[in-house]
UniProtKB/TrEMBL annotation:
GO molecular function, one term: aminopeptidase activity
Pfam families in UniProt: Hydrolase_4
Keywords noted in UniProt: Aminopeptidase, Hydrolase, Membrane, Protease, Transmembrane, Transmembrane helix
Lineage of source species: Bacteria, Pseudomonadati, Pseudomonadota, Gammaproteobacteria, Chromatiales
Organism of this sequence: Ectothiorhodospira mobilis
InterPro entries (UniProt xref): AB_hydrolase, AB_hydrolase_fold, Hydrolase_4
Serine aminopeptidase S33 domain sequence ranges: 73-186
Keyword Membrane in record: yes
Membrane-spanning intervals of the chain: 6-25
Name listed for the protein in its UniProt record: Serine aminopeptidase, S33
Cited PANTHER family: BLL5160 PROTEIN, HYDROLASE, ALPHA/BETA FOLD FAMILY PROTEIN
Amino acid sequence: MNWGWMILAMMAVFILLGIGLRSWLLRAFRIRHREWVDAPERLGLHGDPVWVPGRHGRRLYARYHLPHPGAPVVVMVHGWGANGSHLLFMVPRILEWGLNAVVFDARCHGRSEDDGFASLPRFAEDAEAVLADLRGRGWGNFILLGHSVGAGAALLAASRTPDLRAVISLAAFSHPEPVMDQWLRQRGIPVWPMGWFIKRAVEWFIGHRFDAIAPRTTIARIRVPVLLVHGLEDTVVPPWHGRVLARARPGTRLMGLLGVGHNDPEGFAAHGEAILRWLHAHGGCGGEMHPPESSHAAGTR
């Protein structure tokens, strides 16, 4: 038996399997719908469209709403398969409170350029690119706000960004594993053993171990106030994820929203006043925020 030829044949098989799995993952996680769902002008917003230089020479599309010179800037990170337009609903209220706001499209999303694939670490890199662009324009005092995967990315970016005031997480998962397991079951793929190999392939593909980028890991390294907001009717990322995150960083506020699901902009918007009041009280922005006289705290528990 020629062991040399056998080893070469086995290596060829593994290479072909790797190429096939990579191609399947690219198709499975490709972002199919990239149109903006809302127009800023419909909400009375007239911010500046900006192309931000990102990693690997890719450009990110952003809308800068900066009417308050010197005031903190809320940089918002959308979720998987969404884009900056999905967070526009929060901008008018943020501006009304005397803050500035920025929305942007992560790579492979919305109007931003492609870069092969998207991932939570790449979302974080894109948020950091927007922060760097704002610093270059003379802005500082940032607040990161993210939804779903964007919330996990905001927590990851915040764990390594010094000049933040606060972080607001909407519907973050605590660890990618249970989210991936749910995704596998929905497609009829056994979690063991097939799912285990797929998850390890995803880690290899994105270049990061799940444990290292998991929000329950990164939140413990954040040194500014963190607000965890979670819809109590969320079936995509159930509320127990929020409780896990809160335990991972003692003293973190967890705000549960009655009647709110996961992809529920109207539900989150209904509690916008409560979120901004927390930021006013705990985010180090008390002297720079100006609550409207008509504002009132929304009911939460």
